[in-house]
């Protein structure tokens, strides 16, 4: 199975690295200093569970040199989705499947708008990982899971092939018959986790230990659940209780990717996370005061650092 990872950061680098280490035919589409390091020194993963050092990998910034693959994985930030989809065109043939592990709830539909419904799978990724330095992926904690499914819920040979490749690489992989629900579940968790950790400039451990901060985190989750249900998701009304229990099991040092971006002065996914909760809530008349506050107070940083 030929796999192209469009993006080699925390998600693409970690899961693509495990697939490549297991012998899968993986090519990374990357750029800049990270690409140069991958080509010169290979890929390393600093992880408490699956460390890799100096794995020789194929990496390029030109998908036309790769040709058609079986599976395209879109693993860039949300604002790069359409650009990544266009960049990936040389990788896509009549039998190619495309999946995005981007945050938010709109990625699959945005890919469908570019390629039509045929090649697109729905995907969800749970991991705490980022580029530690060029060529090196830093993985925090033990969480590393992929959930993938056909958007219509059916089983398919292409989904099974991808599942088999990931399982052979030791990746926790769930083939979902209701991937749209899984996407909403991730959105409820991540919008709250990202927004509150970024606003507080803190990893999750100290926040969940302080009653006031924990209450804010739970309130953000409850708002997300209400918005999801208003938009037709079958999440139960008490789903926030399940999410806060999941958060209690995270490594105390875990930070959201949005907090990592804030700390390094990068653009934030704020409009697609807390901002999206606010927007989607307004469409259905659902109050979202916690996410509204997060969105308002992080807005000055959304496009990068504040002007001097």
Short description:
This protein has helices at residues 10-21, 32-41, 81-87, 107-115, 157-168, 179-200, 204-209, 211-230, 239-248, 257-263, 274-284, 289-298, and strands at residues 2-6, 25-29, 43-46, 52-55, 58-60, 71-74, 97-100, 120-133, 136-150, 172-175.
Account of the protein in words:
With 308 residues, the protein is an alpha/beta fold. The chain has two domains: 2-177, 3-Layer(aba) Sandwich (Rossmann fold), CATH 3.40.50.720; 181-298, Orthogonal Bundle (N-(1-d-carboxylethyl)-l-norvaline Dehydrogenase, domain 2), CATH 1.10.1040. The chain is built from twelve helices and ten strands. Strands 1, 2, 3, 4, 5, 6, 7, 8, 9 and 10 form a ten-stranded mixed β-sheet that branches. Strand 1 (2-6), helix 1 (10-21) and strand 2 (25-29) form a beta-alpha-beta unit. Helix 3 (81-87) runs parallel beside helix 4 (107-115), helix 6 (179-200) packs across helix 9 and helix 8 (211-230) crosses helix 9. It is globular. The mean pLDDT is 95.
Task: Describe the structure using short key phrases.
Rossmann fold; single chain; N-(1-d-carboxylethyl)-l-norvaline Dehydrogenase, domain 2; alpha/beta; 2 domains; about 300 residues; about 20% strand
Query: At the fourth CATH level, what is the homologous superfamily of the largest domain?
Result: NAD(P)-binding Rossmann-like Domain
How many helices? The count is: 12
* Overall strand count: 10
The percent range for helix content is 40-55%
Average pLDDT metric? 95
Structural class: alpha/beta
**What's the level 1 CATH class of the largest domain?**
Alpha Beta
Number of domains: 2
Topology-level CATH name of the largest domain: Rossmann fold
> How large a portion of the residues is in β-strands, by DSSP E?
15-25%
Major sheet details: 10 strands, mixed
Order of helices and strands: EHEHEEEEHEHEEHEHHHHHHH
End-to-end Cα distance, whole Å, is 49 Å
Low-confidence stretches: none
| Rg of Cα set | 19 Å
- Supply the CATH architecture of the largest domain: 3-Layer(aba) Sandwich
Give the overall shape.
Answer: globular
């Amino acid at each position: 199975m030929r796999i192209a990872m469009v993006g080699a950061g925390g998600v693409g680098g970690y899961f693509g690295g495990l697939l490549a280490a297991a012998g899968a035919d993986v090519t990374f589409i990357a750029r800049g200093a990270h690409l140069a390091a991958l080509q010169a020194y290979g890929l390393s993963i600093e992880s408490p569970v699956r460390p890799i050092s100096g794995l020789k990998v194929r990496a390029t910034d030109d998908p036309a040199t790769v040709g058609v693959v079986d599976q395209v994985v879109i693993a860039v930030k949300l604002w790069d989705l359409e650009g990544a989809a266009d960049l990936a065109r040389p990788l896509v043939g009549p039998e190619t499947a495309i999946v995005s592990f981007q945050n938010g709830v709109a990625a699959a539909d945005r890919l469908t708008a570019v390629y039509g419904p045929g090649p697109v799978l729905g995907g969800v990724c749970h991991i705490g990982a980022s580029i530690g330095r060029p060529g090196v992926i830093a993985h925090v904690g033990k969480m590393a899971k992929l959930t993938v499914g056909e958007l219509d819920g059916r089983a398919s040979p292409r989904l099974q092939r991808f599942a088999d490749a990931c399982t052979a690489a030791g990746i926790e992989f769930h083939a979902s018959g209701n991937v749209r629900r899984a996407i909403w579940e991730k959105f409820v968790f991540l919008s709250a986790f990202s927004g509150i950790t970024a606003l507080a400039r803190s990893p999750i451990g100290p926040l969940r230990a302080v009653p006031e901060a924990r209450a804010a985190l739970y309130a953000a989750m409850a708002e997300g659940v209400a918005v999801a249900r208003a938009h037709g998701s079958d999440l139960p009304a008490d789903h926030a209780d399940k999410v806060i229990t999941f958060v209690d099991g995270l490594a105390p040092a875990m930070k959201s990717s949005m907090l990592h971006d804030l700390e390094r002065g990068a653009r934030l996914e704020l409009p697609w996370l807390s901002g999206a909760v606010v927007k989607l809530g307004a469409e259905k008349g659902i109050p979202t005061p916690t996410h509204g506050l997060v969105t308002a107070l992080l807005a000055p940083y959304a496009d990068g650092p504040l002007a001097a």
